[in-house]
Structures are given as structure tokens and as C-alpha cells.
Amino acid sequence: MRRLPELIQAVLLDPWSDAPRAAVADALVDVDPDRARFIRLQLEATRHRRAGQWRGADLLAADDAAWDLLQRNAQWNIFFPGATHWGFGRGFPEAVTFDARRFVDEADALFRLAPVLDATLTNVGAAAAELADSPFLSRLRSLRVIGPTPVGALRSLAGSPFVSRLRVLELSYTGADRSVLDAICASPGLGALRYLGFTGNSSPNPCFAHRDEDGISAAVVEDPALRRELLDRWGEKAFLTFRPGDRFVTADRFDDGR
């Protein structure tokens, strides 16, 4: 059997796949049964989300059991200078919150440490050009920009040659305007984008967003006319037609766990 460090390195080299993570869980059964169960529970939860099971009892049970294990094993957390938050997925820390400048400067070390797929970045306007030129963007499955951001910075990000693997782009409450929407639609690199968060911006949101009103949950479009205009101008775009099944869209539902 391959040694545990080799199995973990396989996860770092192919963070999208489920199989290397399952192999780590198998190797840990006897030496660290809690960690093995945690990985398996989170893999199970992801499989439910990929199948569109947002609120089922099996998903909730897997999530709750995994959370309980994580709370009792603080040693699993990773401490990386500059990271203000870590989130676990499929048994490993794969979501991180970072200042954009520090992400640009320290991405190489970050990706050597953890199989990061989902990044939340602050102060993007201060490092927009460098971020758009960072090849490490190509490692990401989802990107969330936090806080008011110059529209030029957002357009640069949309036009980056390194965003081809993004499934989720969250730009809500950034101040994005119509020019940012056009840049996203025109971007040859965003062909894999499945969900665009665009609530609370200068431009109305042309995408479906989940809302709870009067006890009824539904995916609605704030500006259907704008959505139709964008479709007529730019053609079919997955992020303009995707209907979220829940208030929170998790990027793991869009990967195939190959």
C-alpha cells in the first residue's frame, strides 16, 4: 500500500477528484478512524449535493456528523499566514478567505499546503491586474469577491485567461454594473461558469436567485428583461439559466468527482 504522505500528495495534485481522498480515508481507518470517517462523511454529503438533494435527511445527517467530528478535532485545521478563514470539503481544507494581494503573493505556498478549490478574496481592487494575471486562478472552482470593488477590476478578472475552470463566481454587493455583466458574457475564459451571484449591485441581477417569500421557496429573476437581452446578445449562457435549489450555492455540486 502507498504511504500516507504519497496519498495526501495525490490529493494535492488532483484536488478535483474524489478517488484520492477516498484512498486517504481507507489508509486512515486503523490509525485515525475519526479522520477517516470525516472524509467519508464529507464525500457522501458532496454526492448528495451533486444529485440535487439539498435538504434531504441523509445529507443533513452526513453534514451534522462531519461537523461534530471537526469540532472535536481542532488539530485538523490549517494555519496559514494571511488566511482569515478555512472551510473543509470532502475531508480536506479546500475553501479559504484571503486578501487578494496576499493570495497573489503566496498562492504557490498555499496550493502546496492544501487542495484549495474555492477562494473568497477581499480588497480585489488593490491587486486587480496581478490577480487577473495569476495562473493560480486556474486552480479554482469558485471565486467570491467581497466588498465594493472598482468595475475595472471586475472586468479585468472576467477577462483573465486563467478562469476557465470557474463554476461559481460570486460578485454580489461589489458595485458591479452592466459593463461587468457584458465582460462576463463576452469572456472566452468563462465557458464553464454555471452560477453567477449578482445581487445588490449597480446593475439589476439577470440571474436566477433563490428567495423565501411568505413561506414559499423559489428561484426568481430580478430583471427578466435584462436576462433576455443578454441571452439575445451573447447566446446561451449556463449561468443565466441555472436555477439554484437552495439559498446557498456550493461549488461542489458542479464538479463530477472524476
Explain the overall architecture.
The chain is 40% helix and 17% strand. With 258 residues, it is of the alpha/beta class. It has two domains: 1-76, no CATH class; 78-258. The strands form two sheets. Strands 1-2-3-4-5-6 form a six-stranded mixed sheet. It has a two-stranded antiparallel sheet with strand order 7-8. Helix 1 packs antiparallel against helix 2, helix 3 (33-50) runs antiparallel to helix 4 and helix 7 (151-158) packs parallel to helix 8 (178-186). The radius of gyration is 19 Å and the shape is globular.
Q: How many individual β-strands?
A: 8
Biggest sheet strand order reads 1-2-3-4-5-6
Shape: globular
Largest sheet composition: 6 strands, mixed
Number of domains: 2
Number of helices, where a helix is a run of at least 4 consecutive DSSP H or I residues: 10
H and E string: HHHHEEHEHEHEHEEEHH
Distance between the termini: 22 Å
What percent of residues are in strands? 15-25%
Uncertain spans: none
Architecture blueprint of SSEs:
Elements: H1 4-13, H2 19-28, H3 33-50, H4 57-71, E1 83-89, E2 92-99, H5 100-113, E3 118-122, H6 128-132, E4 142-146, H7 151-158, E5 168-170, H8 178-186, E6 195-197, E7 208-213, E8 216-221, H9 224-234, H10 238-241
Helix pairs in contact: 1-2, 2-3, 3-4, 7-8
